[in-house]
Amino acid sequence: MLEKFFKLKENKTNVRTEIVAGITTFMTMAYILAVNPNILSATGMDKNALFTATALSAFVATLVMALVARLPFALAPGMGLNAFFAFTVVLGMGHSWQFALTAVFLEGIIFILLTAFNIRELIVNAIPLALKHAVSAGIGLFIAFIGLQNAGVIIKNDAVLVGLGNMSSPAVLIALGGVVLTAILLILKVRGALLIGIFAATIVGIPCGVTHLPGGHWLDVPPSLAPIFWKFEFHNIFSLDMLIVLFTFLFVDMFDTVGTLVGVASKADMLDKKGRVPRVKQALFADSVGTFVGAILGTSTVTTYVESASGVAEGGKTGLTALSTAALFLLALFFAPIFTMIPSAATAPALILVGFFMMSPILKINFEDYSESIPAFITILMMPLAYSIAEGIVFGMLSFVLLKLLTGKAKDVSVVMFVLAILFVLKFFI
């Protein structure tokens, strides 16, 4: 049944590989179960209810990705978007969290409509192939940078923006040891190397005080959603502030999701001869449904996770990978203490090495054609430096259009690309 539905042989994979890939993806993004409630609870929302909303929205969206799009990508409330929700819209602009949830709800509806009319698919397909390969490499640097930060290897430095952390701290040593162990396992072609590395680092972290074992019962009943379920302020829909907040949510989520889908698909060699992501409309539908359902449940925008690359690196190629991840999010509702005990130092090695894996599509970029390779380089450079997949795509696409127009190669610029470039410019100055 699984073979027939997910076409495992056709995709040169098997049940074991897909499940291991799904578990790996979950392990590298399980932190969202603890981090999202912490961020959103700053608005006054119930933290326990937020845990349930986070797990359920991730389960629903990833399940749709698995069964409808049949792609190995996982979804959950997005980092960055949840911070914008809490610290900008609520604490900064002074709106209620109900107002912010209403904006997310409207965003989900708009995305469903844009997906139904193929507008989001049009944008994905309009990105030039060189930039698609660059997005993969850019995400690679970005995700490795996140891993290094999470482990404390790289920290903020007022003098030079970033610098080395305390190399003697237990968390840093465990993370670096995890990188070495995982790298050795990869060289020896041990299946499940990333997952083994995560487990090993988690266990070593116990006596070092990095991994904190949960107290009390490890099996528990999921907290009620009642305090945050269907809490909207529909009377504020037509306000100017709602329009501004809604546009920001739409823009960031649009290009974060597009970037992740394109980048991870490029790494997995899923792009067709024209550089298109297979079943991209269905994948974008999963993102839209996730955001819509997530708002009803009481959480911020749901988006495709860049950590999906860790599952792809383990060989995940079909929706069975996503189905395995979805199942674990559902299971996490009842075993929250187990899944939230995994420290950042344990998942950092996987993120760092997945960053390495994501770099390979750079070899497909024609560096002799500067009108293609310079925008690709700018895309790669800006993602980690701007700390945003969306901004990396914006700078890459703007430079592509500008260089093509100024060097007499306007025919290489599609109408969609030209329109997007104008919108990007307007975004900077409005």
Fold and architecture overview:
The chain has 430 residues and is mainly alpha-helical. The protein has one domain. Helices cover 65% and strands 3% of the residues. It contains 19 helices and four strands. The chain has helices at 2-6, 15-29, 32-40, 47-69, 81-90, 97-116, 119-126, 129-151, 170-187, 193-208, 240-267, 280-297, 308-313, 319-332, 336-339, 344-357, 370-386, 389-406, 415-429; strands at residues 75-77, 154-157, 161-164, 302-304. The strands form two sheets. Strands 1-4 form a two-stranded antiparallel ribbon. The protein has a two-stranded antiparallel ribbon with strand order 2-3. The mean pLDDT is 88.
Structural class: mainly alpha
Quick one: overall form? globular
Radius of gyration over all CA atoms, rounded: 21 Å
| Strands side by side in the biggest sheet | 1-4
End-to-end CA span: 53 Å
N-to-C SSE series?
HHHHEHHHHEEHHHHEHHHHHHH
Structural domains: how many: 1
The helix content, as a percent range, equals 55-70%
Mean pLDDT equals 88
Give the strand content: under 5%
The count of strands amounts to 4
The unreliable regions are: none
* Sheet with the most strands, sense and barrel status: 2 strands, antiparallel
Helical region count? 19
